[in-house]
């Protein structure tokens, strides 16, 4: 196992001191920033996430802030999702595509006000695209990366922990909505969202100076709830079918191939970049699409490259995320499968990097 | 020491099989791709780089290709360096700035033809910015990431090794020029360039299928030259004053602050984004600038965050890269220092993350 060589370029976060004190054992890099991957073991973290509550440093979900008279126009240019009905206080999952309809990012848009938005991004420098578009169209809008560091509180006991720190009314925040809650005199946006299916919140911590005080307050308040430092968990996120930009989809894919067609209103999203390119696939559907895939046999190795999915000698897709699931006692995986082979129950073979071949089955639904 | 968690999102390169077989021990992530950081030890790699020849997987220097009638116009929009005199066959180091004059990348532009360029990028998704500008200005140009993987051959014996694989005429390639050389029937651009001051070449390997054949051919041909797999070396690059985007400079810095004023022709680079913002700093000079800094005492820890440079209680700069140099028997460092304190010989203090304070001196020149 190779170590990660630290440098300023792999940015520490406002919570890194807490993460280190909690004994982080592995990292990935996400938006040029450190993202923890494991604390005790991936499997131990997984069981704990499903039964208790965890605090996650997801500061790497950087924000792209749009501010000014053209902020709303620019936001609609970025996504084929129709934003006309969206209100301040709402969060929308928005595919962002380039002029060819290829995915550039799959962030959550946070509408703070009619003229102010945060885009909470996946792993690509979306800021560069947004700045380029704003400049090219001479829009009257400021585009920048603010000092905002998301902190996630995830797990079945998340509501209890959050209520102790932010008050009982935090329980009333609805899914993909956010409210403003006070912490040490600072008003913070708290959304019911997060990269797990175990329930919980994301706190948009504005101002690095209160990051560690908040981290410590959550750890202190949750001691009897068995709160632990955690992180997005590979097993849980695959079981839950939570896609990962760069893993399960890239710029080569349309939103429809990623199963995100329900977030595209290509006809009505007037002014959206990539609209022309997406109209046909929006009406006819894609030729390949993301599917849950179960891989037979014992635990597979880390999926560090696409694994071909075969029907005999014919490649009909690829697996892009995979791991052993202790709860479901199979290898759970996410794959992109051709239309001819994507029906639930289809038997395929997957070829691992060492050349071994494993039976695999296309599933109808994800596990969680 | 934390491990790096591998996933498809941290892309393998066309040379990863060779890198693994050579026993890579550490990685960083660069342009969403694995970049080796150490093979035997950083110090052993360093001594070897200075005396023999190494083959480096720098495929993470991804290319942004510009192709079409507006390619030249777009290229000039991207940089304050005047490109009018540049000929096909030349490489230019080009600062790329946004509309505020902030650095977005510090790549090498490779002019293949009047209407075809590669931009060999540092660690940011420059593709997104270039695509945004091209779209916003409705330019007649294709912008994409081609299947081109740079492989560097660096060290004092680089000419000898390259001549064995590409023929004697490769010795005639001049600094920051490239020529076309044949390998297994494929014509490859070979430039005299690279991220060390030990001399050598970068081969723009077009087509992943010939990547490992070339890697193996170089390893085979150089056996008696003691060729080894290597990588950009932290010690050598700091001694040589080779800047690293994301470490020594960010979007917060102008090219002039980075000492790259000599690559800016802000008056004559007509059409360049950020020209207005840079005109004043181009004529008056910056308020802070990158300097070599020597830090006294024994080896410093890894520089994973900016270290404040102090004059008493006053912060006058920061160190952004630092390491112990065996050859110069001091800690070599790169810092950004205010105009009031940047003269060679200025005595400062540097504050390490654990709170300890070390004497530091601003140097007049880098070490190599």
UniProtKB/TrEMBL annotation, chains A, B:
One MF term in the entry's GO annotations: methyltransferase activity
Residues annotated for substrate binding in this entry: 202
Keyword DNA-binding: no
Record domain Aminomethyltransferase C-terminal: where: 307-366
Domain GCVT N-terminal: 20-267
Pfam families: GCV_T (PF01571), GCV_T_C (PF08669)
GO biological processes: methylation
Domain of life per record: Bacteria
Keywords, in A-Z order: Methyltransferase, Transferase
Name of the protein this chain belongs to: Dimethylsulfoniopropionate demethylase
Origin species: Lutimaribacter saemankumensis
């Amino acid at each position: 196992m190779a170590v990660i060589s630290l440098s300023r370029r792999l940015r520490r976060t406002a919570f890194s001191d807490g993460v280190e004190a909690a004994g982080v054992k592995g990292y990935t890099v996400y938006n040029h920033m450190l993202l923890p991957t494991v604390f005790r073991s991936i499997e131990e973290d997984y069981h704990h996430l499903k039964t208790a509550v965890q605090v996650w440093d997801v500061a790497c979900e950087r924000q792209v802030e749009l501010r000014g008279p053209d902020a709303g126009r620019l936001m609609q240019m970025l996504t084929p999702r129709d934003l006309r009905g969206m209100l301040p206080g709402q969060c929308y999952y928005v595919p962002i595509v380039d002029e060819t309809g290829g995915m550039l990012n799959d962030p959550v848009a946070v509408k703070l006000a009619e003229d102010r938005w945060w885009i909470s991004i996946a792993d690509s420098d979306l800021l560069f695209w947004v700045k380029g578009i704003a400049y090219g169209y001479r829009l009257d809008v400021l585009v920048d990366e603010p000092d905002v560091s998301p902190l996630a509180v995830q797990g079945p006991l998340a509501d209890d922990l959050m209520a102790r720190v932010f008050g009982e009314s935090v329980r009333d925040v609805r899914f993909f909505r956010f409210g403003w809650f006070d912490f040490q005199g600072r008003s913070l946006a708290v959304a019911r969202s997060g990269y797990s299916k175990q329930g919980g919140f994301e706190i948009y911590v504005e101002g690095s100076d209160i990051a560690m005080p908040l981290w410590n307050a959550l750890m202190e308040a949750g001691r009897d709830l068995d709160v632990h430092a955690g992180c997005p968990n590979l097993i849980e996120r695959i079981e839950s079918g939570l896609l990962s930009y760069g893993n399960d989809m890239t710029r080569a894919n349309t939103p429809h191939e990623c199963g995100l067609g329900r977030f595209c209103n290509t006809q009505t999203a007037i002014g959206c970049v990539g609209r022309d390119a997406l109209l046909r696939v929006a009406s006819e559907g894609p030729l390949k699409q993301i599917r849950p895939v179960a891989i037979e046999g014992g635990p597979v190795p880390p999926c560090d490259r696409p694994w071909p999915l075969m029907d005999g000698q014919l490649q009909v897709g690829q697996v892009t995320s995979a791991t052993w699931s202790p709860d479901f006692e199979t290898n759970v995986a996410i794959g992109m499968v051709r239309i001819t082979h994507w029906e639930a129950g289809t038997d395929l073979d997957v070829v691992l990097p060492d050349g071994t071949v494993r039976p695999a089955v296309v599933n109808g639904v994800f596990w969680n």
